[in-house]
Write a structure and sequence with these properties.
This protein is mostly beta strands and about 220 residues long. The chain contains 2 helices and 17 strands. A 7-stranded antiparallel β-sheet has the order 1-2-3-17-13-12-6, covered by helices on one side. Strands 5-15-14-11-7-8 form a 6-stranded antiparallel β-sheet, with no helix packed on it. It starts with a strand and ends with a helix.
Length: about 220
């Protein structure tokens, strides 16, 4: 399946092709500048995976620090706060393991960023259904990894709140193009230029052997 859209605020053509290959989904992306001048842009994946308390985020050993973009009730501090991954001390002085999924009663909603792991993957372990979801990507094309951790904390004005995690390979460690431009993180496409990248999502049975194999790359 190939999907295509044209930007309404930027002169960009965006295309995504989706191919099912056994237990993998291969997503191929293309961005094209259709104008005669350079265009700045950013891109982020945003796959929202359903989760339950007891599930786990699994990242390679190269991820040692995360930066807060937003934190409901400032549980992780102000935007820009830095924490070691995965265990931190929150604003109440409690020790928190960010890799462990909580229940919706905790009302957690946090967006954090890290540098992309050099190993080129991030995973979600769905313990109850015994599945391991692994996102693989090129850290040179997507040099940052965003994580949306939402356990009943958003949207705050609705009774139906999210219980999900999004693992987000991305081109900038911010959610705003204006901020990306201001801070020097925006990507550039020259006149009529193109850029292409891929994300592969694998689904495996969750076993001690598969978990250890993926952690080791």
């Amino acid at each position: 399946v190939t999907l295509e859209a044209r930007g309404w605020s930027l002169p960009l053509l965006f295309r995504r092709s989706i191919i099912l290959e056994g237990n993998s989904i291969r997503l191929t992306y293309l961005a094209e500048n259709t104008s005669a001048h350079t265009v700045e842009y950013l891109w982020s994946a945003h796959p929202s995976f359903a989760v339950e308390a007891g599930d786990r985020v699994s990242l390679p050993a190269s991820i040692r620090q995360v930066v807060v973009e937003d934190s409901h009730r400032l549980r992780l501090g102000q935007p820009g706060s830095r924490h070691e991954w995965p265990c931190i001390v929150d604003g109440s002085g409690d020790r928190v393991d960010l890799s462990q999924v909580l229940g919706p009663e905790q009302e957690v909603a946090e967006k954090i960023f890290s540098a992309a792991p050099v190993e080129g993957w991030a995973a979600l372990e769905r313990c109850k259904i015994q599945r391991r979801i692994v996102m693989r990507f090129d850290p040179e094309k997507s040099p940052y990894l965003g994580m949306w951790l939402c356990y009943g904390g958003w949207p705050i004005d609705r009774s139906q709140r999210q219980q999900c995690i999004a693992l987000e390979p991305c081109t900038a460690p911010v959610d705003s193009l204006a901020q990306a431009i201001e801070r020097g993180y925006a990507s550039e496409l020259v006149a009529h230029g193109t850029d292409e990248w891929q994300v592969v999502i694998d689904i495996h049975p969750l076993t001690p052997e598969s978990t250890e194999s993926t952690r080791n790359g």
